[in-house]
Write a structure and sequence with these properties.
This protein has helices at 19-28, 72-76, 91-108, 131-140, 156-169, and strands at residues 3-12, 41-50, 53-62, 81-87, 113-119, 144-147. Strands 2-3-1-4-5-6 form a six-stranded mixed beta sheet, sandwiched between helices. It has five helices and six strands. The two termini are 13 Å apart. The protein binds guanosine-5'-triphosphate (GTP) and magnesium ion.
Length: 170
């Protein structure tokens, strides 16, 4: 196959799991150790070449704080893909992924590609969410599973290539 694609991808997950960090590291190769809570949402674009396919990704980073939860639909509506992000050292953030998955499946049906993302892989020694459990959960909801570190730039290129390929094939 060969072509030009434009896809919308939304980043969802609890506050402080690293959504903004993932996007900034991937698009601009920047990382800050500070947490500046996103207000409402922000947006960056990135062009990717996948063999003969060219993909423009419009990446929407949302605000994870609970008080912004109700804004979710504004940003996930019309998305071709969603990254459901949690922090591997924070069990509560994994439970929040499950809430977002249920909401997305209700709102979008099976139209979007979902990837569950365990971030902060550099903090492996502090992990509290078992990888096998997360993989099994992702499989049970027809989602892919990937682990990343925005800090160490691990897994990000693979993550965005994977979601792009899946959106092309959908
Ligand atoms: P909200 O905007 O409030 O929803 O948070 P967010 O999910 O965008 O989190 P953000 O990217 O602001 O990161 C929160 C904190 O985690 C910051 O202090 C980051 O530096 C840190 N962080 C993000 N990714 C990683 C990572 O891969 N490893 C480590 N060790 N810290 C990370
Ligand atoms: Mg943020």
């Amino acid at each position: 196959s060969e072509g030009e694609f434009r896809f919308k991808v939304v980043l969802l997950g609890e506050g402080a799991v690293g959504k903004s960090s993932l996007m900034l590291r991937y698009v601009e190769d920047k990382f800050s150790p500070r947490h500046v809570s996103t207000i409402q949402a922000s947006f960056l674009s990135k062009r990717l070449d996948l063999g003969d396919n060219h993909v423009d990704l419009d990446i929407w980073d949302t605000a994870g704080q609970e008080k912004y939860h109700a804004l979710g639909p504004i940003y996930y509506r019309g998305s071709h893909g969603a990254l459901l992000i949690y922090d591997i050292t924070d069990k509560r953030s994994f439970e929040k992924v499950k809430i977002w998955v249920r909401e997305l499946q209700r709102a979008l049906g099976e139209t979007a590609v979902l990837i569950v993302v365990g971030n902060k892989l550099d903090l492996e020694s502090e992990r509290t969410v078992d990888r096998t459990e997360a993989i099994q959960y992702a499989k049970s909801v027809n989602a892919e599973y990937v682990e990343t570190s925005a800090k160490e730039n691990l897994g990000l290129a693979d993550l965005f290539e994977k979601i792009s390929s899946l959106m092309i094939d959908k």
